[in-house]
Every structure is written in structure tokens, then in C-alpha cells.
Amino acid sequence: MADYYDEADLPRFAEMGTEAPELWDKFSSWYGAVFEAGALSKREKSLIALAVAHAVQCPYCIDAYTQGCLEQGSNLEQMTEAVHVASAIKGGSALVHGLQMRKIADKVSM
Amino acid sequence: MLATLQSSQHPLASTAEQLRVLQSGPLPGAAKPFDQALADTGLGPLVANGIEVVQVNVGKLCNQTCKHCHVDAGPDRTEENMAPETFELCLGAIRKIGQPEVDITGGAPELNPCFRDFVERVRDLGCAVTDRCNLTVLTLPSQRDLAGFLARHRVRVIASLPYFLSSRTDAQRGRGVFDKSVAGLRLLNALGYGMPGSGLELDLVYNPTGAFLPPDQAALESDFRRELRARHQIEFNSLFAITNMPISRYLEFLVRSGNYERYMQKLVTAFNPGAAEGVMCRTMISVGWDGRLYDCDFNQMLDLEVGFGKPRHIRDFDIEGLSGRQIETRQHCYGCTAGAGSSCGGTTV
């Protein structure tokens, strides 16, 4: 798996624009705008990104937003809480689907 | 306590080796020389614009050995400290300039036996004086009256405190440093430093505690003010966010931890022409413990003396020649021009 996820690939992300430059430019522009300070601060957005990175289990994003959060002034205590939020939603999401299980079980049972 | 690079005979104790790493080290896809980056944005060559600040590095002696120290300062650096005759030469140069701001740094500059006499005489010339203080020096038994001395002479204190939590501060500066730093800050606050209306200015310096860039200065200042007030009842005036320079012990950390390449890439990618215009070397001259002249404290630690035929020692100080001098630059200069910029007074944009 180490070959699939290479740290050195992260700075090469822009190569995804090689065959589709217009789409890459649109993505880059939108991505940049998303992380600008708005109703949420850059720091809050980085913490959200860190949490989502764990939820989608993207090693590139975890790398980028661990450093991003530190560079926005967050500390490990705050970052760990953000990861717990992601984990709670992931876990809660699995658990709440138990209601589907219960409903289906009810439906097929006498 | 961490050993200095010099005492452990580390190859990076040599400035030639540091420059070799900086000049030949890998910079994937962006090995552009700093001068070229300046030229490409119409800013090169970098030229000084007068001398508003004289920064005097009085020596490498320090009671701490911080992991990021660009001076490789420490308790064992007892030889490289400014002698009385060199202080006299500094005073002569300061008189020639008029009333520049005098910024005293080290090591722990207060440990130089001539520190207090120099402060008094510079103040007598009417110059504003800044002491770059590591805070723990204020708690040493030999320095019990230091805080009072600084207050009496209205010395501005710029104090290092990389974070408002002990874990990150101690990780960078040594075990127990945070608690002693808080004790030092309390001594200063008790004398009026950092308090509204006192006129005694106390500023803090944040350095990242790892291989990453500093956060937004204003946001961080707000965090520090809130947390230091709530946790320790500490007050201060401003916080400066300073980028760590890839020099000396911080360079050694970057190389040893496998972060060098990526950190340099980060600095190069974040090159900001706006920050380059406001770099501190354009309005200051840096004096080394032995009287040699440099464009900044970082160049000093790399033995890059003022160049281009200008006087290289304080005894030959020539305000005309030095005021418009061309600045010596190398790859480490990307550290001062990344993002919002970095200087001894924090961000430059």
C-alpha cells in the first residue's frame, strides 16, 4: 500500500490539470475560495477539513490539514477533538443505520 | 538540556556546511535562487534604505538551548561574547547615526557583564532600547534585579514564548521553561510592563514549534491574550509571529527529522513579493559579538558579512556607505519573505 500513498505525490496534485486544465482551474479557484475567511474563520475551516479528512480517510488530506491546522494556530488538543467529532459522526452514522436493520427485521419477522 | 551543535561537534556547527546544505540541498521543482525570485518580481537586488535600527548581538551565552535556536547559543558558549572595547565602538557608531533604535540580542544578552552599562549609556544618548529576553533569565538568582533595571531604564522587552501551553513551549525550549517564563512575565507585569498607560512595553514572540509556518499574527495574538489572561493573569502589548529560519539548530532539526525538503518547498512556494519589500534588513545593521557587521542576525549566524565593498567592522562604521548598501542574500532569505513575511517585529505585510 505504501506505493499507492506516497508523501511526494501531494505537491504533484496540480498534475491533475494536465489533461483537463479548465476543470483544474475551476476546481483550484473554487477550492481556494472555500478556504478563505468568511462566516467561518480559516482556522475553523481547517479544523473541519481535518475532521473530514479523517472521515474520508485520505492520507494526503490528513497530512495537508494537520500542517494546515498547526499553521492556523490550532493545537493538538483542539485537533484531537476535531478528529473525535469525525469519529463520532462516523460511528453514529453506522449505529443509526441499526434502525434500518430493526425495521427490516420487523418487516420480515412474524 | 540539549547540547549545542558546537559542543557536540556536529557538522552543521560549521556555517560553511549550513550554506552548503542551503545552496545545494534538494528543492524539488523550485530551486530558484532567492535573488532570482526577487529579480523576477522586480525587487532585486535588495538594497538597504537607511539605518533605523542597530541590532547588537552581544554574544552566544545563554541559560537555555532551544531546539530552534539560529545562534546555537547555550551555557557552553562562553567565548563568543562582546568585549568592553567593542561596546565602545558600538556606542561610537550609534552616536554617528543619531538616535537609532538599539535592539540588543544574544544568546541571553543580559548575561553579558557589560549589558547594563551599555543599556544605560545608550539610553543616555536618547535612543529607544529593546532587550530580546528569553524570560527565564529574569528568574536566575544572579539576575534578581534585572526586571527592575529594565523598568527603570524604560527598556522595551521582546520576550520569547512560543505557545501559551507548557507542552509546546517546553518541547521547543526545554523542560520547565514555560513555568519559569510565566514567573518572568509576572515579574514584568508587576513592574507595569504590558499594562495600559505604563509606557513599559512588553511584546511576545511566537515561533512555530515544528516544521510549519506561523499562523495569522492577529488571530494568534488574540488567542495568546485570552489564554494567558485566563490561565495565568498575564498581560502583554503585542505578539509577533516569526518564521523559523533554516539555520543552525533548526536546520539540524529539519534535516534530522526528514522535514528539510518540504519546509524549504513551503517557504519557496509561499514567497510573497509584498513581504520582501518590508524585510528588516533594509532598515537595520546587525553587529556581531566581535564587531563584524551584517545585514541581519541570520546572516550573522551564517558568517555572511555585509558585502559589496562596504565596511565590515564596527570600527570602520560609515553611515553613508552602509545606508544604501546591497544586501547579501541566500536561500534562507525565503524564510523572511514567506506568507505574511517575518522580521524581528513580526509579519511585514
Using only C-alpha atoms, the radius of gyration of chain B works out to 19 Å
Mean pLDDT, all residues of chain A: 94
Structural class by SSE content of chain A:
mainly alpha
Percent of sequence in beta strands of chain A:
under 5%
| Helix proportion of chain B | 25-40%
Uncertain regions spanning at least 5 consecutive residues of chain A: none
Number of helices of chain B: 14
Distance between the termini of chain A: 47 Å
Q: Which sheet architecture does the biggest sheet of chain A show?
A: none
Uncertain spans of chain B, ≥5 residues at pLDDT below 50?
A: none
Give a quick account of the main beta sheet of chain B: strands, pairing sense, barrel closure: 8 strands, mixed
Distance between the termini of chain B: 36 Å
Number of strands of chain B: 8
Strand composition percent of chain B: 5-15%
Strand and helix order of chain A: HHHHH
SS content category of chain B? alpha/beta
The quaternary organization reads as heterodimer
Q: Could you give the count of β-strands of chain A?
A: 0
Instruction: Indicate the percent of residues in helices of chain A.
Output: 55-70%
Using the alpha-carbon principal axes, give the shape of chain A. extended
Tally the helices of chain A. Answer: 5
Strands, helices and their partners?
The complex is a heterodimer of chains A (110) and B (349).
Chain A: H1 21-34, H2 42-55, H3 59-71, H4 76-96, H5 98-108
Helix pairs in contact in A: 2-3, 2-4
Chain B: H1 15-24, H2 34-40, E1 53-57, H3 84-97, E2 101-105, H4 115-124, E3 129-133, H5 146-152, E4 156-160, H6 166-173, H7 177-190, E5 202-206, H8 217-232, E6 239-241, H9 248-256, H10 260-269, H11 273-277, E7 284-287, E8 293-294, H12 297-301, H13 319-323, H14 334-337
Parallel strand pairs in B: 1-2, 1-7, 2-3, 3-4, 4-5, 5-6
Antiparallel strand pairs in B: 7-8
